[in-house]
Amino acid sequence: MMKVDAVPVPEGSLLAEFGSPAAYRDCFRRQAGEAVSLEQLIERFYSSPAFRPERILLGLIGKGADDTDAKAVARGETGQFAAWNVVDRRQDEILLQDFRGSTASWLCVRKQADKTDLLFGSWVGEPDRTVVKALLPFHRWYSRMLLRGFV
Length: 151
Prior knowledge:
By secondary structure, the chain is an alpha+beta fold. It has helices at residues 14-17, 38-47, 52-60, 67-74, 130-148; strands spanning 4-6, 24-32, 80-81, 84-90, 93-98, 103-112, 115-124. The protein is 33% helix and 31% strand.
């Protein structure tokens, strides 16, 4: 199993620049033993077995998506995937915000020779809410599982 580390949110990234400075942000990194493009990361992340339970739950609230939808957002053919809308995209990163505007997800690739750092981060706009605070340990665990689940 690949190691996933909590790392600082990279300065100048879409995630670092998004929302107010008081918001919660996190970032997790996993190294892939191959060159991986942003398109590949997005498609494989949202199509992974680790993400499927979330896709099922999203389907129950009318925000379902399938592997075809994951491919379309990965290729930049659409600005929406399940409950998220693309806020911004660069060559090596993408930022998506949920339909309520309360959270955002960020994916990034940082290439190094024949390896790639895969980065996944989150933004939460109201981190001081009691429910949000209570869920943060689960969120951090789940974020690690999602990045480990990249295949």
